[in-house]
Amino acid sequence: MKLPIAKSPTREANPASEVNPASGTGTIRDATTTSEMSDTGEARTNSDGATLPDSNLPLIIGHRGASAVAPENTLTAFERALDDGADGIEFDVRLARDGVPVVIHDATLRRTAGIDAQIAALSSSDLSSIDVGSWFNRRRPARALAAYTRETVPTLARVFETVAPRCRLLYVELKCDAQETTSLVERVVAEVRAHNLERRVVIESFTLAAVAEAKRIAPQLRAAAAFERRPGCPLPAARTLLKRARDCRADELALARSLVSRRTVEAARARGLQTVVWTVDHPSWVRRAGALGLRAVITNDPAKMCAAREEFLRQWRPQ
């Protein structure tokens, strides 16, 4: 599904300006002295013989799809992210009343449908008929498209069937309370297995009990422990984050950008953990992620971040 390009980024459900994070980040490793390999295992070089830093650059993951330019967590947003060059998508999953995993962030429909109803109180069939795209047109008229009014809450199965074939990676964030953790994990893992996506899905959650349960049920799946900085609280120490991640058997750290530091990333790497950052829309994060060795950046605006990555690589390509 090809859609007109819109330029301006947003962040999360409530857009906010993003600080340029370039200061104090270090630099990309010297490509003339570091051997980097392409996905095929062959080193790539520019016309001067310097090795291209492809493996130093992060994967670009669309946060709830291309949520800067399309209604979040919809099939259109996911298709748009991939059309814009994203390597994969990140999205949220909850259980509907009938126990079917559905793709939506909030526990209610108030923000995205204007309906005062809990997701857990509606069946997946009910949700498949509720408009969750018109809010985007009202909030961002400059980017409005008539097609968005036809977007509804998709099931996880439908996302896997229609979008996954184009994705290198899918970050599936579990949204659950303690009572439904096991049920949600079991249903999501069943869908992952049914669609043969074990090697491309990363289970992610702020609910670390869900991460632990996912690793218990399906130890072969990758899992990411997600962390954010709580308002009014000091930055957590790297050792605290790493202990919590290791205790739930996570393979990755998914860190809010304010938590990303060289010390934390290097400490994670020393313990066998990769790191991804969310949610970043400033192009300088491509270079910073490369300098730090981050696996991926999760962004609302894949087009902008992919363009930044391409521009960096253009400097290394043969003339």
Structural overview:
- The protein is α/β, with parallel strands linked by helices.
- It has a domain at 57-107 and 154-228 and 235-314: Phosphatidylinositol (PI) phosphodiesterase (TIM Barrel, Alpha-Beta Barrel), CATH 3.20.20.
- It contains eleven helices and eleven strands.
- Helix 8 (238-247) links the parallel strand 8 (222-227) and strand 9 (252-256).
- Helix 6 (181-194) crosses helix 7 and helix 10 (284-292) crosses helix 11.
Task: Give a brief rundown of this model.
This protein has eleven helices and eleven strands. With 319 residues, it is of the alpha/beta class.
Helical residue percent? 25-40%
Overall geometric form: globular
Mean pLDDT: 86
Biggest sheet record: 8 strands, parallel, barrel
CATH architecture call of the domain at 57-107 and 154-228 and 235-314: Alpha-Beta Barrel
Tell me the strand percentage band. 15-25%
Unreliable stretches (pLDDT < 50, length at least 5) are 1-54
The spatial strand order of the largest sheet comes to 1-2-6-7-8-9-10-11
Question: What's the CATH C level of the domain at 57-107 and 154-228 and 235-314?
Answer: Alpha Beta
For this structure, what is the CATH homologous superfamily of the domain at 57-107 and 154-228 and 235-314?
Phosphatidylinositol (PI) phosphodiesterase
Helix count, DSSP H or I runs of 4 or more residues: 11
**Taking Cα atoms only, what radius of gyration do you get, to the nearest Å?**
19 Å
Assembly state here?
A: single chain
Number of strands: 11
Overall structural class, as computed from helix and strand content, comes to alpha/beta
Cα end-to-end separation: 33 Å
Order of helices and strands: EHEEEHEHHHEHEHEHEHEHEH
CATH topology of the domain at 57-107 and 154-228 and 235-314: TIM Barrel
